[in-house]
Amino acid sequence: MSDVQKVQVGEVQLAYRVWGEEEAPPAVLLHSLGEDGEDWRGVVARLTATHLVYALDQRGHGHSDWPGEYGFERWRDDVIGFLGALGLERVTLIGHSLGAVAALLAAKASPERVERLIIEEPAPPVRAEPPLEAPETPEGPLAFDRRATAAVAAECDAPDPAWWSDLAKIAAPTLVIGGGPTSHVPQSHLADLVDRIPDARLVTIDGAGHLVHEERPLEFLAAVNTFLTPHA
């Protein structure tokens, strides 16, 4: 099963795809800014060997609604609402970049729903110098709502001071995957995340850059499978 399906979550309809056997434990994939659930197709086949995989189009992306209202807390609430709407009580949550931040926030807010947490190249909201500026909207059709980019830039310009301290509330065993120094995300931020999350480990795939699961899928999957193997 991989056709796009939709579910109502609060005021938005969210699109998603499903792969795997219904009896398998669920894993939910959250893409980065500007992508959609199709971004995970390169690794889905291996993940379905052990999990029923849901790939979500987050609000403002792909086939989900583009309401114009964005921000990390809205993406977090959509994830929690999605789990509730589909009756997914305990999941492995896997996120990349923006999706990784949404996954972190969801794991903090609803620890009872997240069994394991995997975050690839998360970009935590850290004030940039000079402040980030949202790019101008180009002409022509887009695969996502550019207003989502403006929302991310605004939150990074004025991050919530509790964001880092609240990481201690994450109860799920957590794997942080970094792409090494060729990534635009400072790898020191990933090390800080691991230091603040009670049960976390860091795997760095040097040379992968920001798009680890796309550029180095086999090494990404090896890290994920090792983490998800009991007693690993």
Task: Please give a quick description of this structure.
This protein is of the alpha/beta class and 232 residues long. Helices cover 32% and strands 20% of the residues. The two termini are 30 Å apart.
How would you characterize the overall build of this protein?
This protein has 232 residues and is an alpha/beta fold. It has one domain: Alpha/Beta hydrolase fold, catalytic domain (Rossmann fold, 3-Layer(aba) Sandwich), CATH 3.40.50. It has 8 helices and 8 strands, in the order βββαβαβαβααβαβαα. The protein has an 8-stranded mixed β-sheet with strand order 1-2-4-3-5-6-7-8, with helices on both faces. Strand 1 and strand 2 form a beta hairpin. Helix 1 packs parallel to helix 8 and helix 2 packs across helix 3. It starts with a strand and ends with a helix.
Q: Fraction of residues in helices?
A: 25-40%
SSE pattern: EEEHEHEHEHHEHEHH
Overall morphology: globular
Named CATH topology: Rossmann fold
In DSSP terms, counting alpha (H) and pi (I) runs of 4 or more, how many helices? 8
Level-2 CATH architecture: 3-Layer(aba) Sandwich
Beta strand count: 8
Which features characterize this protein?
about 230 residues, alpha/beta, Rossmann fold, eight-stranded mixed beta sheet, 8 helices, globular
Secondary structure blueprint with pairings:
Layout: E1 5-9, E2 12-19, E3 26-30, H1 41-47, E4 52-57, H2 72-85, E5 91-96, H3 98-109, E6 114-120, H4 147-157, H5 162-165, E7 174-178, H6 187-196, E8 200-204, H7 212-215, H8 217-228
